[in-house]
Amino acid sequence: MQLNTKRLVLRPINANDKHAILKYRSDAEANKYQGWIPKTLDDVETFLGKLSAEFNVPDTWFQLAVVEKNNNELIGDIGIHFIDEQQVELGYTIAKHKQSLGFATEAAKAVIDFLFSEMKKHRITASIDPENIASVALLEKLGFRKEAHFVESLLLNDQWVDDVIYALLAREWKNL
After folding, report:
1. Which residue in 1, 138, 139, 169 is deepest, having the highest Cβ count within 10 Å?
2. CATH number, domain containing residue 59
3. Helix or strand or coil: residue 89?
4. 157-176 residue pLDDT tens
5. Are strands 123-128 and 87-94 parallel, antiparallel or unpaired?
6. Residue 162 is part of which domain span?
7. b or e along 8-28 (b: 16 or more beta carbons within 10 Å of the residue's beta carbon)?
8. For residue range 33-59, what is the model confidence (pLDDT) as tens digits?
9. Separation of alpha carbons 92 and 123, rounded Å
């Protein structure tokens, strides 16, 4: 499975990506809202080993590499959690030096469109820290609506944090 946008190629992440993943994912400040911040290549290899090798398997995560077309640089990733046959959850990370350039929006739009149009999924959700203002803005720009706010419901990086759930239905995406 591969998706192409104007500036990006979205392809399955693989073991050859481990150095690039460590580089952008290990920045603790840039990724402070993430549940996983690797410290070593072993951490990345363990993470990659837990991912599904197959796309669209219920109760698994599948990770796409976000690669810039013009220089073939891996600048982020999009995780797709196939909750069941009809529902998925998205997560995304973009390297700090590539944030605020529209790459997350471009990549997320392509994935959302594929999941609804090609895969015929019914609902896509995203779970984020409400203090992650950039992520909130991205989801709202894409048409997601806030469905729930759980107070101190996740223990991330040794701190209890809130969790906000955003969601989007296929029929809503179609009407945007």
Report:
1. 139
2. 3.40.630.30
3. strand
4. 788 999 999 999 999 999 98
5. parallel
6. 3-175
7. bbbbbbeeebbebbbebbbbe
8. 888 899 999 999 999 999 999 999 999
9. 17
